[in-house]
Amino acid sequence: MYKVGDKIVYPMHGAGVVKKIEEKEIFDKKQLYYQVEIASEGMEILIPVDKAEEVGVRNIVTHHEIEEMVQVLKEPMDQMISNWTKRYQENMDQLKTGNILHVAKVVRNLTLMDRKKGLSSGEKKMLTSAKNFLISEMILVDGKSKKEADTIIEDTVAE
Asked: What phi and psi values does residue 43 have, to the nearest 5 degrees?
């Protein structure tokens, strides 16, 4: 069980800090929730304590893993599926893992694709969400500002 002040990651939302652990009654069911403030967004989310592991909540990465993420951003674009629906689903599956290296691949691939031919509105939204995920961990691990982290990501993605 995490405690107040712990830095954790919630897949699809990013890294944040546990602000409170409290019992709430939602839909006529009382249970404990982590109240987590997401670093890149400033928004707060509630995560049921007894479901945290099941939904993939994990500790934040180390500085070394941030360096590995930056290396992934430097790599060339993967061969992309031309079918938009399949490509979107494949990228969504990668994001749902909450693995920073998988998310970095999605960011890299979508950024390079956007630079070449543009993205659909759905993929643009996915790219923004994935970048915010990476930014949130960079904020908590390396003390970067949101703007600094965003600049590092943009400048690192290989041409």
From this structure: -85, 155
- 32 and 87 co-located in one domain: no
Our count of domains for the chain comes to 2
Total count of residues recorded for the chain: 159
Dihedral of the alpha carbons of 118, 121, 122, 127, in degrees to the nearest 10? 60
- pLDDT tens for the chain, 159 residues: list them: 999 999 999 998 999 999 999 999 888 889 999 999 999 888 999 999 999 999 999 999 999 999 999 999 999 999 888 888 999 999 999 999 999 999 999 999 999 999 998 899 999 999 999 999 999 999 999 999 999 999 999 999 976
On the CB side of 128, CA atoms within 13 Å amount to 8
> What is the CB neighbour count within 10 angstroms for residue 86?
11
pTM as predicted? 0.91
Classify residue 148: in a domain, yes or no.
yes
